[in-house]
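User: Fold this; tokens only.

Assistant: Input:
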Amino acid sequence: MKPYLLCPNCGSDDIMKNGTTRRGKQNYKCRDCGRQFVEDPQWRAIDPDRKAMVDCLLLEKIPLAGIARVMNLSQDWLQRYVNRCYAGVRQRVQVHPKARGPLEVQMDELWSFVDDKGNKQWVWLALDVATREIVGCYVGDRSAEAAMRLWQSMPAVYRQCAIVYTDYWEAYAKVLPSKRHCAVGKESGLTSYIERFNNTLRQRVSRLVRRTLSFSKKLENHIGAIWYFIHHYNKLIGAEVLSR
């Protein structure tokens, strides 16, 4: 028995041999706590610092395969971790509280797909002109019902007070209050902020790049990745609002 072999659970040196693993490695057992282990195991628990780095990399335009290579992680482990992460993302905007009064919102819809380009998933977004916060989001088809879901996703103060600028897509006119809806062309510049955010979203979420091999295979992860970035973006914008 090697004198330096210690139990990874309790640190005891009272170790005995306990057969071999299915891969042929010598198995050991601690007489004090009963923990079984092998020397120099291939599998090691992912420490919190590496998980925090993965969380940061998920906010960059890097496919999961690239993150696995950079972080020296199993793709299977990473996919399971991402599934849990995106499943826990809150699908509701979190923005700096606004008082009732004049507000301006820009809306637009962003084309995307899941699994193949025939499965189109439109990302509907609403942006506060003054703060640049994302104040509404919905992922679905391009129907009036989807436009209604975007409208309902916004905090009540925006639905009660905001003037909303959109393009001429007919779904908006069917849903938005006519007295506070302004349909405009791109040349007006009145939807420029949301169009710029669309570009930011494509640049930061790899599965939204138009020609990509990093597309989503599960709708749940597609939606989760979008909301994951929106919460990060709003957190940064909210910090800027508070510092003004």
